[in-house]
Every structure is written in structure tokens, then in C-alpha cells.
Design brief:
alpha/beta, Rossmann fold, 7-stranded mixed β-sheet, two-stranded antiparallel sheet, 9 helices, 19% strand
């Protein structure tokens, strides 16, 4: 009788330990931010409002080092609390992050998401390379997101993206609080297309196909064919010598609208047409702050629509 009671006690204790191990895992909502320079970010840290100047202790970011094709160090990064300096000029060797004097949409995006999901842990994975195109014929020295583009040694922007995602997703405790994190992909945020609208009409006309294929591949990377996608619609400053920065920009815009219209789980942010510019190619600081908020609102709306019966 005593042995039976002891056995029951031991089994109950072991079950309790097992249950606690299951409970002691934290679900983390993960969002990927990708594209070219207006996702990389050229907002100035010194122009941030007080609400965004402090480190965000509740949102984490893995920022892959952005660099051109052929470089084996592209995509290296390290999980860290979200703060300014993840804009253009950011560098990481995978061991230490070196921050710049610029920021992108990630700051206001992370803050807005935390407000929209107050009971959830939020994490961002970012890889964006200024000037990068999807079409390899528009890549020049900036780089191409075309998966099949081999270049000189077979390394392209999509490879850097994969390095970033793999490096981020393999970490089991991103905030080092001793509790295992379960990283759940919840959305793709894409701000890109300007470079595909510069050189030739043929490249611009291929943008819908290239965009769709790339979003399908990114969804597949996160193992969710219905992962919500939010596209930032490109705009034109008109500040170059001819009054038009992106020669075939309207074709890119049409392709972006077509993608969102045809995809069952995508949205587009059009507020970009109202933003001011700091130079012919990049939004000013206020633009990046609004862009992040609009991205968060759009992905939140897609999420709620997906959950509705």
C-alpha cells in the first residue's frame, strides 16, 4: 500500500514538472520587415519625439547586416531590445550590433504593435538593403532579391534574408529570461520597388510577377502560405532634375495594387504619397514614424479579419 502511494506521488510530481515545462514557454509574435532604403530607414535619431527615444524593453529586434550581393557576412545579426539606430548604417557581425544615427519604420511599428497587442510579446526580424531590386537586371551594385540570381559566387539578397531569418529563429530564448520562446511568424511588411522602376519598362512590367514570387518564397520560409503581407506603396519626390525620380514608378504602383487586390491576405499602405522627403529618394523622419504606425494598423486589421468566422 505504501509503495502504491509513493508511486502515485512520484508520478504526480513528474507530471507536474512536465506541465510546468510546457507552461514555461512564451509565445512571441514575430514580424518580418524587408525591402530597400525606405525600409532600411533614413530618419534622424536626433529628430525622434520623446515617446520613441527610449529603448523599448517590451519589443525585440533581430536586424540582419545589410550589404550587397557576394558578401558572405550579409544577414548576420543579434537579438536586442528595440531602439534607435537600426536605420541606414547599422552593422552587425553576429556578436555585436553597431548602431547608426538613423532609424526606420521599426520604431513606431514595434511601439504601435505593443499597444495593439498589450498582452503579447512582440519581436521583429529586419533585413533591408538600400537600392536593392527584385529583378536581377536592375540590381546594379546594390543587390537582387531574385532567388535564382547567382552573380559571381551565388550569394544574393535572398540569401542574406535567409541568413537573417535562420539566425533569428534558431535562438530559443531571445530575451534571455530563462524561459524558452516559441517564435510565431505573424506578418510580412514589405517596402520596396523603387529600384525596379528606374531602368527599363520591361523590368517594371515584370514587377507583379517578381513581387508575387518573392512574397510566396518569404511565406514559404516562414512555413505559412497565408501569412499576412502588407505592402508599402512607393511614391515619388519629384526632386530629381527631370521632376520624376522613378521613371516607371507608376507601373510599380500598379503592380503593387494588383498584388494586394489578387492576394487573399494582403493590404497596402498608401499614406506614403503624403510624406515629405529629406532627399530625392528618402522620406523624412515624420514619414518613417507614420509609416510604422500605418504598417502596424494594416497588419492588425489583416490579423483580425483572418480570425473572424
Amino acid at each position: 500500500m505504501l509503495q502504491s502511494i509513493l508511486l502515485i506521488f512520484i508520478m504526480s510530481h513528474m507530471l507536474s514538472i512536465a506541465q510546468n515545462k510546457i507552461i514555461e514557454k512564451e509565445r512571441v509574435q514575430v514580424y518580418f520587415l524587408g525591402g530597400q532604403s525606405n525600409m532600411e530607414g533614413h530618419g534622424l535619431n536626433e529628430e525622434l519625439p520623446d515617446t520613441l527615444k527610449a529603448t523599448n524593453d517590451r519589443v525585440w529586434i533581430f536586424h540582419g547586416y545589410p550589404i550587397g550581393d557576394e558578401n558572405p557576412n550579409g544577414g548576420l545579426g543579434k537579438w536586442a531590445k528595440l531602439k534607435s539606430g537600426n536605420g541606414a548604417g547599422f552593422y552587425s557581425d553576429g556578436v555585436q550590433n553597431t548602431y547608426s544615427n538613423k532609424f526606420g519604420a521599426e520604431l513606431s511599428f514595434g511601439k504601435a504593435l505593443q499597444e495593439l497587442y498589450p498582452n503579447e510579446k512582440i519581436a521583429l526580424i529586419k533585413y533591408a538593403r538600400g537600392g536593392s531590386s527584385i529583378d536581377s537586371l536592375a540590381a546594379r551594385h546594390f543587390g537582387s532579391w531574385e532567388m535564382d540570381f547567382s552573380g559571381t559566387n551565388g550569394i544574393n539578397q535572398f540569401d542574406h534574408f535567409l541568413t537573417t531569418v535562420n539566425g533569428a529563429m534558431k535562438v530559443k530564448d531571445i530575451d534571455k529570461n530563462g524561459i524558452e520562446d516559441v517564435l510565431v511568424p505573424c506578418g510580412i511588411i514589405w517596402m520596396q520597388g523603387e529600384s525596379d522602376g528606374v531602368l527599363t519598362k520591361d523590368i517594371a512590367l515584370r514587377y507583379y510577377f517578381n513581387l508575387k514570387r518573392l512574397m510566396d518564397l518569404i511565406r514559404a520560409t516562414f512555413r505559412d502560405d497565408d501569412l499576412p503581407v502588407v505592402i508599402g506603396k512607393i511614391s515619388d519626390s519629384g526632386l530629381d532634375n527631370n521632376g520624376k525620380t522613378w521613371r516607371y514608378g507608376e507601373l510599380i504602383q500598379d503592380a503593387q495594387e494588383a498584388y494586394v487586390r489578387k492576394d487573399g491576405n494582403a493590404a497596402i499602405v498608401r499614406n506614403t504619397k503624403y510624406y515629405q522627403y529629406s532627399d530625392p529618394w528618402h522620406y523624412d523622419s515624420k514619414g518613417y514614424i507614420d509609416l510604422g504606425i500605418k504598417f502596424a494598423e494594416a497588419i492588425y486589421s489583416l490579423d483580425k479579419a483572418k480570425q473572424s468566422p
